[in-house]
Write a structure and sequence with these properties.
Shape: elongated
CATH topology: Multidrug-efflux Transporter Regulator, Chain: A, Domain 2
Radius of gyration: 21 Å
Number of strands: 3
Largest sheet: 3 strands, antiparallel
CATH architecture: Orthogonal Bundle
Strand content: 5-15%
Order of helices and strands: EHHEEHH
Distance between the termini: 53 Å
Helix content: 55-70%
Structural class: mainly alpha
Number of domains: 1
């Protein structure tokens, strides 16, 4: 048995919120969340009874889409914008990690008495 049964509540991808709870938190109608499911923007977990369950991560996406819709974007363009924003954030994180690894390798090379040329 899991030593801490509430630990899954800390997981942003754990589906714990019902549609009505999610809609209330976002200040939207349940139909908005259904439309995000139908259009493929969100893929909520289904309970054994078939009810949608939403995670915190899914609510963050829904909130971002809602802002874009309020700004006048179509749902299809809002979906693309959110995906591109996420892709860009991933690329920035990857670049930062690569720079950190490069810098660490340079420090190691210098400390071992084998200085490498600086190719900035």
């Amino acid at each position: 048995m899991n030593p801490d049964p509430l630990r899954s509540l800390d997981d942003p991808d754990h589906p714990v919120l019902t549609m009505s709870q999610a809609a209330e938190l976002l200040g939207v109608q349940a139909a908005f969340l259904r439309s995000l499911d139908t259009s493929g923007v969100l893929h909520p977990h289904r309970s054994p009874g078939g009810h949608r369950r939403y995670s915190r991560h899914q609510l963050q996406i829904a909130a971002r889409v809602r802002v874009l819709l309020d700004d006048g974007h179509l749902l299809s363009s809002a979906q693309v914008i959110v995906q591109l924003q996420d892709d860009l954030a991933d690329a920035v994180a990857d670049a930062e990690q690569a720079r950190d690894e490069r810098d660490a390798a340079r420090r190691d090379a210098r400390s071992s008495g084998n200085p490498q040329p600086d190719y900035r």
